[in-house]
Structure formats: structure tokens, C-alpha cells
Write a structure and sequence with these properties.
mainly alpha, 5 helices
């Protein structure tokens, strides 16, 4: 009995030693980046825009969690279906136990609870990607006419821009 615990202890010690040894080797081998460019977040060679604390819409996380729940459901239902088949056939680990109908009811109850959770999220509107708008319909007041500017208009705009001094805004 104590030998089983010793196996777990040795396995845990070897795993921890492996993790910390890899961290130590990586800290010695990796390049040192002390410049401003080296310390920036890598985004495919593009300069970063804004801070890292950007607020995302909560619906992304809700849809991701619903996906994870149903992926886990599938991971549970495949072995359940195999055991259910064996229990109704009277073979395998469930031979002679008579748990076939109990396993069937238990699996159906599991699926029903998950379905009710999905129905709740759906009725709450967390799966809608387009927010609904309950205000008055938008009606533009005037339709702008789009036409290309001619050469004299462009020259007039350039002369007006050169004549007027640049505006400097003070940021406090």
C-alpha cells in the first residue's frame, strides 16, 4: 500500500523537477531583450495600438462557454452510450447488474438539463450577435450628393489651407 503512495510521490517529484529544469534552461538560453522594441507585444510586425485592457463584448465569452459545455457533453455521452449498449445487452462491466434503464434515464436527464440551460441562455438573448434596437427608425434628413471635385475647387481648398495658420491643441 505504501509503495503506491511512493510511486505517486516519485512521479510528482520528477514532474516538478522537469518543469523547473525547463524554466531554468529557458532563462539561460533565451535572448535578452532590453530595448523598447524588444519589450513590446509582438503583433505580426505591426505597431501596437492602444492599451491591452480592451473591453470585449461578453457575448464572445458566453458563446465560448456554451461551446465548451456541449463539447464536454459529447465527451461524456460517447462512453455513456457504449456502457448503455453493454448494459442492455447484459455484457461487459454491467453484466447482471440491471442498470440499463437507470443509465438510460440518467443520460436523458443529463441531456435535458443541458438543453434547459441552452434554452435559458437563448431566451435571455446572450446568443444574439446583433443587438436589437427599439427606437424610432432612422431617416436621414438629406442625401449627400457624391461627385468628384474639379481642379478649381481643389486649388481653392489648397490655397485656403495654406492661408490659415495651423491649429495647435493643448492636451492637459
Amino acid at each position: 500500500m505504501l509503495f503506491d503512495y511512493l510511486n505517486v510521490l516519485v512521479f510528482t517529484a520528477v514532474g516538478l523537477a522537469f518543469v523547473f529544469a525547463n524554466l531554468l534552461v529557458a532563462s539561460v538560453i533565451r535572448p535578452s531583450r532590453t530595448t523598447k522594441e524588444g519589450l513590446e507585444t509582438y503583433e505580426c510586425g505591426e505597431e501596437t495600438i492602444g492599451g491591452a485592457w480592451v473591453q470585449f463584448d461578453i457575448r464572445y465569452y458566453t458563446v465560448a462557454l456554451v461551446y465548451v459545455v456541449f463539447a464536454v457533453e459529447i465527451a461524456f455521452l460517447f462512453p455513456w452510450a457504449l456502457v448503455l449498449r453493454e448494459s442492455f445487452a447484459g455484457t461487459g462491466a454491467a453484466a447482471g447488474t440491471g442498470i440499463g434503464y437507470f443509465a438510460l434515464v440518467e443520460g436523458v436527464l443529463f441531456v435535458v438539463i443541458l438543453f434547459l440551460g441552452l434554452l435559458y441562455v437563448w431566451m435571455k438573448g446572450d446568443l444574439d450577435w446583433v443587438l436589437s434596437y427599439s427606437g424610432a427608425n432612422y431617416r436621414p434628413t438629406e442625401r449627400p450628393t457624391l461627385r468628384p471635385a474639379n481642379v478649381s475647387e481643389i486649388q481653392a481648398r489648397l490655397q485656403a489651407a495654406e492661408a490659415e495658420p495651423p491649429k495647435v491643441e493643448a492636451h492637459v
